[in-house]
Amino acid sequence: MIDNKAQDDDAPAPHSGFPAADRPVATILSPRWSTEEARDRLNEAGQVMDLAGIKPDMTVADIGAGEGYYTVRLATRVGKKGRVVAEDIVPETRDYLATRVLREKLDNVSVRLGLPADPRLPENSFDRVLMVHMYHEIESPYEFLWRLRPALAPGGQAVVVDANRPTQDHGTPPELLKCEFAAVGYSLVSIKPMPSAGGYIAIFEARGERPEPSAIRACRSGKTATPASMARESKEP
Predict the structure, then answer these.
(1) Could you give the CA distance from residue 71 to residue 73 in angstroms, rounded to a whole number?
(2) Contact indicator for 68, 76 with CB cutoff of 8 Å
(3) Which of 116, 112, 151 is CA-nearest to residue 135?
(4) What Cα–Cα distance (Å) separates residue 163 from each residue in 109, 125, 200, 237?
(5) What's the pLDDT tens digit per position in 174-225?
(6) DSSP H helices in the chain
(7) What is the largest CA-CA distance in the chain?
(8) H or E, element range at 220
């Protein structure tokens, strides 16, 4: 099933009041991180889903779904009563994945086209949101995380899998990741090494009120994020 809501005329204007990322942004090179056979030999998806607590009947979003390695395995894990929304910002990749979903008769999966700074997910809907080997490609992380927050259901969690290396080298240093999430009001639940997925897995929950965009301060060199309450009082430009 293809969802074209991301092509609506009322798409939000990018970078409207949000700070720019004070770090390089990796380019999107390929919808495939590695071969599915190689990843399955390491039980990558199984380990990630276990650590993320993904269970039958859950509703899960696969952000930056690419060719669907996680999408098809999530569909099996959540079962017929569960739901998977697979999102990508590249139209050709979205179309390829939609064809795969139809071919493999994944009736509990829908595919949609997102925007670079907005995943365009329905509010209060997701138990888990997965971002696997794609966070370093987000050009406006504060806006993206801010627009993602309403999509989480009560108790919902955002799960990031990435490599521990500079963003320009297609990874995200863990301290920088934690700082950027904290700047938008997320709290770290856990972070663990994930060798089978080429790095680590970090899990976050949204806590408290979502800060105003103007209250968010960009992270620099992995330093602790400025709390929103302090940012409002700050005289920094």
Answers:
(1) 6
(2) no
(3) 116
(4) 27, 28, 6, 32
(5) 999 999 999 999 999 999 999 877 799 999 999 999 999 999 999 986 455 5
(6) 36-41, 44-51, 69-78, 91-103, 141-148, 174-183, 228-233
(7) 56
(8) none
